[in-house]
Each structure stands twice: as C-alpha cells, then as structure tokens.
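Entry — protein

Goal — fold tokens:
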Amino acid sequence: MTALSIPSLKGKVSDAEWQLRVDLAAAYRLVALYGWSDLVFTHISARIPGPEHHFLINPYGLMFDEITASSLVKVDMACNKLHDTPFPVNPAGFTIHSCIHAAREDVVCVLHTHSRAGVAVSAQAAGVLAISQQSTIVRSSLGYHGYEGIALRADEQPRLQANLGTNTFLMLRNHGLLTVGASVADAWLNMYVFENTCRIQIDAMSGGGAVTEVAPEVQAFNSMALKTVTAGQGAQIAWPALIRRLDRVDPSYRE
C-alpha cells in the first residue's frame, strides 16, 4: 500500500487537524524538494490543536515526497498510534520531538534534518560562524546539544530541553539541525535559514582563505531589524509562495 492509495481523512477529522495535515505534508514535500531529506529518516512533527497532546508524524518507510495529508499518523506523547493506519511509526524518531513538545507549549512544529551541510557544520568545533546575514539570524536564537549517540534514551531528554531552552534553532553536534516554530510554516522557514547558513559556511571555508566575521554590533542590529522587516510574519509571507510552487510540482500532498 502506498500513501496515495489510502482513504482520504478529509471530513473525518476536524477542520483544524485537516489543515495541519495539509501543512505538514507540504513541509515534508518541500524538505524533499529542497534536498534536505535523508531517505526515510528524520522527522517533522506537529501538535494538533486541543488539550489532548496529540501529534502528527510521518508514516515510517515513506519517502518524504510520497507523504500525503491522509497518510500522516496521529500519535500520543508516547508515540502510540491513535487511529487505524497500515503504516508503522518510529517511536525512536519521536524521542527528540516528544521532549521538545513537552517543554515548549509555544511550539507547534519540530523539524529535524540530517542534511550534508548541517551535519558538516555540527561537526566543526566553532559551530555556526557569524559570516553571513543568515548566520546572524540563527545565532540570535541558537542552542547546542552535545552528541550522546542515537537518540533512544529517555535520560537524554532533559538535556535536550535545557540546551534548546527558549531558542528557535538547535544544533545537534555531530548529528544535524533542528528548528521549532509556532506553525509548520515557521519551523520550515527557520530550517531554510539554518540550512543556508550551513551551506554558506561550508562554501566560504572551502575557499581556503580567511573569512570575515560580522561585527557583534551588526549581529545585534540584524536581530532587531528582522522583526521590523518582516513584522514577525516572515513565514506567513513566504509560505503561500512555497505552497504555490509545490502545487505546480505535485499537489498530491493534499490528498
């Protein structure tokens, strides 16, 4: 069975859940489109509105460009499936996500990647360097979490929560990148900036010459200026255009 052959859940879930499913499926497709996916591995999770603490996550084994709104799996905080679905879920993949959702009520979406550039920078001792406009945005709200092996142990979760803190960006050392957002659109655009920050850094350092860092006072200015330029609505400005692009490529994520 493929994602496209399962019955549609439209009209069988609340309007709010269906819209979240469409947005989350779009985020998976866009991650694939922009080349950040790692086969069927890594996850994007989203908290369904309501007091139940239920979440949507990818059906394990589907490529990100196969995921649809109806194929997303509803789970509880322990990653137990809450509806009939032929697809498995990966409880280990929810280890990181569940503890962040538990600690951050302001977070709707958690997005984690193993992109080549992201892992490369996560392995560099200095971490994210202030060498681009993008990096100044990331560094203004960035945490680091040391590598403790494949994230399976519950005792690592408090350290993940503490290292993210109130930040938007988290660099998982020797592992990859993570972003959070008050919406799927926010988390996705945050990852776009984080990923480009890492790609720029790898490209700049590969030239072999010395790099020029942005002055601290300019970094501080950029952090404040961004809020003025986008009025805190950067994702809401960019997301409709991303959806239009995705619809031109393949609108089946909406099924």
In short: Residues 184-206 form the longest helix (23 residues). The chain has a mean pLDDT of 92.
